[in-house]
Amino acid sequence: MNTELPSTTEQHGDNATTSDKSNRPSLVKALGKWSAMALVVGAVIGSGIFAKPGANAMVGNSVGLIMIAWAVGGIITVIGGVCLAELALMMPKAGGTYVYIRKAYGRIPAFLAGWNESVFFQSCGNSALAIFFVINLSSLIGVEFSNVETVGIAIFLIAALTVVNCLGVYWGGLVQNITTVIKVGFLALIALLPILLLFVEIPEVQAANYTANFSTDQTPDSLVMIFTLVMLNVMWAYSGGWMVTGIAEEIKEPQKNLSLALIGGAIVLFVIYIAVNIAFHGALSLEQMVEIENDPVRLVPQEAISIYLTPVNASLGQLAKAILSSVILVSVFSALNTGLLTPPRVLFAMARDEMFIPAFAKIHPRFKTPHIAVMGQGLVTVILLLIVSGYVVYRTNQTTESGLPAGSEAKGIFDYLTNIAVFSATIFIVLTIGAIFILRRKHPDMQRPYKVPGYPIIPLISLVANAIFLWLVGSDDVIVVLFSGGFLLCSLPLYFLFAAANRKPVRGDT
Questions:
Q1: d(Cα 201, Cα 182) in Å, to the nearest integer?
Q2: How far apart, in whole angstroms, are the C-alpha atoms of residue 96 and residue 80?
Q3: How many Cβ atoms from other residues are within 10 Å of residue 297's Cβ?
Q4: pLDDT for residue 17
Q5: Rounded distance, CA 430 to CA 484, Å?
Q6: What is the pLDDT of residues 379-430, one digit of tens each?
Q7: For residue 118, what is the DSSP state?
Q8: Nearest CA among 278, 342, 279 for reference residue 309
Q9: What is the DSSP letter of 324?
Q10: What is the residue-wise DSSP string for 202-223?
Q11: Is the backbone of residue 400 left (phi > 0), alpha (psi -120 to 50) or beta?
Q12: Is the previous residue joined to 456 through a cis bond, with omega within 30 degrees of 0?
């Protein structure tokens, strides 16, 4: 199969020669349908399903509302996968959403999309995942790491996975397959735990857990705001599945396998998240979840699995908690691997379009990977990790008004960072879904191996749902809007610098 890189002349009308195109190394199609689906599921299942149930209990006043949010988030994710499949199969190129936004809106929105996904959203996410990994490792082995050791181990982890992904997409995909099978399998076991009620009496598991209401001082008075905050947590747990489109050029038979990965992966996530949350809330009341969330050394999933298995055997309950901690390590490792595998393809695509550092468009002649882009992604992640860690260390050495160490606010800082990441990502999800309408009008004759069923109703539902979510979050927290918008604006001088260096029109083509 021909895997030669298409020239920018073929894609966007930029100047390139046939000889230039033929002399370039090309990306290799090494990922099959299961690897592609594993990337979707693996990218999404990271820290969210383990960290956010407790966070939801802090702001949600009823299990019913929380479960509705998980269902709504799942529906939005599935519909989004259905919509993305049309664009992904029209343009199965490295870069994913960056490519679609460029085709529909032009160079500047595309640059902002690529910058946001790779430099801001994913690098912050990678930093958080690396630190979360070390925290769980410390808990599992019973060794308290110093701040320097924590950051050092996290940097080592990022560096190791950067090397793995430089060696070839096959190895990155293999890591993803193995780790995704482990964490999905264990989550499936958690979802099946309530079946134990048929054989073992578990006093803590009772129907009242699903119906009782409980509020904290963090619970808003407005039902709309409660739902908005819960949805922020939920959408962090669901976010990231679109990143598989960034490696479309390295997927075998993308017309079949990419659509299966986007839609099938979203459905798998929907089912798993609903089932797992039913198990969590069956074992723990909202009040108990809030108590656990306020304890820096406890997590809802470990406590829930212990409740289910301790009546069977006390030792089994403790063993299960340790195993789950290990699975969380695998889950975070898997998500971090995806975060270092797919976003560099966006930087690679931007550089190939002469909108980023030219070296990022290079492909390793032996390993057939955009190795400079991968190393650049790893470097940015480490830089952001050091910045965030410095801030956390500073706060840890301070004292809050309540007299508690500021380090006890770590979960709150994590939640706020994820809120910013979700908000910034949703901006470009809205633009991506909108690209379906624009490209249907501007390029009606463009080949579409797959079309969104129920057009225009289905993509309109996705567009409106994400737009409403953006508006609710923005109206609740202006700082999130200012932070995300300010970061995007800071990148514009870079765009004009690259445009001038490559003698491109500042508005560019579409």
A1: 29
A2: 14
A3: 8
A4: 38
A5: 15
A6: 888 887 777 677 656 655 664 444 444 444 446 556 766 777 888 888 889 9
A7: I
A8: 279
A9: H
A10: -TT--THHHH-B---TTS-SSH
A11: beta
A12: yes
Q: CA 428, CA 113: separation in Å to the nearest integer?
A: 6
Q: Which residue has the tokens 């889950």?
A: 331
- By CB neighbour count within 10 A (0-12 exposed, 13-18 middle, 19+ buried), where does 14 fall? middle
Beta bridge partners of 399: 405
Residue found by looking up tokens 């190939």 in the block: 352
Q: What angle do CA 414, 55, 406 make, to 5 degrees?
A: 45
Distance of CA 341 to the CA centre of its chain: 12
**Whole-Å CA distances, 152 to 366, 386, 389, 393:** 30, 10, 11, 14
How many Å separate Cα 268 from the centre of its chain?
A: 15
Q: Which two tokens stand for residue 371?
A: 């190795």
- Determine phi and psi for 402, rounding to 5 degrees: -80, -5
pLDDT the model gives residue 388: 66
Tallying the residues shown for the chain, one arrives at 510
Q: Which neighbouring-strand residues pair with 94?
A: 247
Whole-angstrom distance, CA of residue 343 vs CA of residue 94: 10
Q: What per-residue string of b and e applies to 175-195 under the rule 16 or more CB within 10 Å gives b? A: bbbebbbbbbebbebbbebbe
Task: Please tell me the predicted confidence (pLDDT) of residue 274.
Answer: 94
pLDDT at position 248 is: 62
Residue of 282, 307, 303 whose CA lies nearest to 294: 303
Q: Judge contact between 19 and 161, C-beta under 8 A.
A: no
Q: For residues 235 and 55, give the distance between their C-alpha atoms in angstroms, rounded to a whole number.
A: 13
DSSP string, 98-154: HHHHHHHH-HHHHHHHHIIIIIIIIHHHHHHHHHHHHHHHHHHHT-PPPHHHHHHHH
- CB burial of 217-231 (b: ≥16 within 10 Å; e: otherwise) equals eebbeeeeebbbbbb
- The 10 Å Cβ neighbour count of residue 291 is 15
Burial 2-11 (b: 16+ CB within 10 A, else e): eeebbbbeeb
Q: Which two tokens mark 335?
A: 């998500």
CATH code matching the domain that covers 28-123+169-312+408-501, chosen among 2.60.130.10, 3.10.20.880, 1.10.10.10, 1.20.1740.10: 1.20.1740.10
- Cα gap 289→444, rounded to integer Å: 52
Q: Kindly list the averaged pLDDT for each block of 10 residues, start to end, along the chain of length 510.
A: 34 40 54 70 78 88 93 91 85 78 90 82 80 76 74 88 76 66 84 78 81 82 89 88 65 72 85 92 91 79 88 85 85 78 75 77 76 84 76 59 43 68 87 94 89 91 92 82 80 82 58
Local structure of 449: helix, strand or coil = coil
210 burial type by CB count under 10 A (0-12 exposed, 13-18 middle, 19+ buried): middle
Distance, in Å, from the CA atom of 121 to the CA atom of 124, rounded to the nearest integer, reads: 6
In degrees and rounded to multiples of 5, residue 356 shows phi and psi of: -155, -175
